[in-house]
Amino acid sequence: MYMLRIQGLNKSFYTGSSGDGMNGEKVAVRGVNLSLREGDFVTVIGSNGAGKSTLLNIIAGVYYPDSGTIYLDGKDITRLPEYRRAGSIGRVFQNPGHGTAGSMTIEENLAMALRRGKPRRLARGVTESDRKLFRDYLCLLDLGLEKRLTDPVRLLSGGQRQALALLMAAMTRPRLLLLDEHTASLDPKTAEHILNLTCKIVAQNRLTAIMVTHNLMHALNVGSRTLMMHEGEIILDVSGSERAGMTVEDLLDKFAKVRGERLVEDRLLLA
Amino acid sequence: MSPTVGMLRAALEQGLVYGILAIGVYLTFRVLDFPDLTVDGSFPLGGAVAATLIVAGWNPFLATALAAVFGYVAGITTGVLNTKLRISGLLSGILTMTALYSINLRIMGRSNVPLLRQDTVLTLIEGLGIPEPVRALVLFFVVVAVFVLVVSAFLHTEFGLALRATGDNERMIRSLGVDTDTMKIVGLGISNALVAFSGALVAQFQGFTDVGMGIGMVVAGLASVIIGEVVVPPRTVVRAVTGAVAGSVVYRLVIAFALRAGFAPTDLKLVTAAMVVIALAAPGTTFAPLVKRYLGLGSGRAAIAGVAGSGEEPGKRAGANQEAR
Fold it and tell me: Judged by CB atoms within 8 Å, which residues 198-237 of A form the interface with B?
């Protein structure tokens, strides 16, 4: 039984008439099939425009696919509005500002995350027992944030904000955690710290996760399975011993090969 | 040109009663980051509903409460136009405001309804033993204080947090399972309920309601909010809500001085607009560089959004701006 099952997913974006004779259609995801078992930690690589972020956004419900079906725990969620599937899906965005509300305090941000997927009542937003829980969670981050519960989040550094966003995405143990290049906009040292935190949190809570990354080393070293996307398709899907034996060079070779083949095809078409 | 006690008292009374409107404007412009122009229609709507019901013999307290309900419906209308029909926020407000002009006239039956010799909330509290010169002042102070407390508490509830996050980071709060459309609709409803409530009290205070009394109310409310941010730096929600009321009082004082200085009452809208521009663009304020930047972008929506979001959090706007590029 798969926890996430994606079948025949297609998605194109229409940019309207571009005036250059093109009809402005851009295929973002093409015929994607993907199944994840509980506890899978999948890394996704691919060049810009390969469809990685679009795939995550479709899973999260930001976009609906043109065709195809998404099942989460056996339930068809393909057309479920984003906010109604958010209870099962935690997300961290590339920009640390996107995962937190800057004008609100650390404890307020965490309190909103604690109510993930639940109705918002007229009850007090942050209670004393919440605060105790938040301090415990924040201690895990090892950034000293547990002493700054009432600081507005905009005062935090990018790394601190991203750590908070990660905590907010994972604290209610969602069925699925989607990480969209969540270390890409951080400096290398901070990125390592956030990545280590990610691994720790995913392992401790036995979360099922999909992590998009530009870092090929992270793609191989983190998680249990690696996908490579190109022009909207999954062109590589490795796990187990095959993946364990792979190096960054192997990935680069695979990638160059795919691109080469495409070029040949294009030439044939043009000939 | 020394201020008289009477002038100060009048400014204070008006500042407090219009302070309720300022809280409403704060909720849309600042909390929701939504430039809501419904206010120019929902303010006279409150006056029209209250006055008409009072003339028809209703209890003034009940009439005032019903005015707020009508304001809530007006706000919801703008919210539905914006979120469900995908009409821009500015235009949604303008459409509701325009429609309300006709609706207000329908409710009143004519353009002006006097409340002379009618019972109002002000005459009903005569029995409480508050001396006449400060009766309105005491009533408005108590009402405004209650609203400051209730709105502040509301903004700290689970619902209130989600409402604030909708204005701060819509993508994030949606990813936490909140229907942001509902948040905007309800937020606009509450805001315009406060505005209509304010309109109902103003009508009873001045002894009549007029279909034109809403003109310029958005800008007056915005002036109050911006002045409030200077008078009471909005480091917390309670301070921000209190600041809107304080700003309203200061605004009415400035208006009183403008009248004394020889401006005609009909010049006051111009004075108000100038005040907002000066507050936004004055050198040394946090607003100046932002306004320039947004005006430089050349987009009307961005300019107004910039105005709406500039005071509290320059960093956030700047960040959002960079991503847009």
Answer: none
Q: Tell if the CB–CB gap between A97 and B319 is shorter than 8 Å.
A: yes
Domain segments of chain B: what residues?
Answer: 5-266, 282-325
The b-or-e profile of A109-148 (16+ CB within 10 A means b, else e) is bbbbbbbbbeebeeeebbeeebbeebeebbeebebebbeb
The CA distance from B283 to B306, in Å, is: 17
Rounded distance, CA A201 to CA A213, Å?
18
Q: What is the pTM of this model?
A: 0.89
* Amino acid, single-letter form, for residue B262: G
Kindly state the helix (H) or strand (E) to which residue B19 belongs, with its residue range: helix B5-25
Please give the CATH number for the structural domain made up of B5-266.
1.10.3470
> How many CB atoms within 10 Å of residue B171?
15
Q: Phi, psi (5° rounding) for residue A177?
A: -115, 125
Higher pLDDT, A22 or B174: B174
ipTM of predicted complex: 0.91
Domain A4-262 grouped into CATH 3.40.50.300: yes
Span between the terminal Cα atoms of chain A, in Å = 47
Whole-angstrom Cα distance, residue A96 to residue A152? 14
**Phi and psi angles of residue A99, each rounded to the nearest 5 degrees, phi first:** -95, 0
Angle at A132 between CA A127 and CA A137, to 5 degrees: 120
Provide the token pair at A19: 């005036």
Residue whose C-alpha is closest to residue B209's, from B22, B70, B8: B70
Residues whose CB falls within 8 Å of the CB of residue B42, separated by 6 or more in sequence, listed in order: B70, B71, B74, B75, B96, B97, B100, B192, B195, B196, B199, B214
Contact B164 A103 (CB under 8 A): yes
The structural domains of chain A, with segments of one domain joined by +, span: 4-262
Percent of chain A with pLDDT over 90: 86
| Cβ contacts of B169 on chain A, cutoff 8 Å | 97-98, 100-102
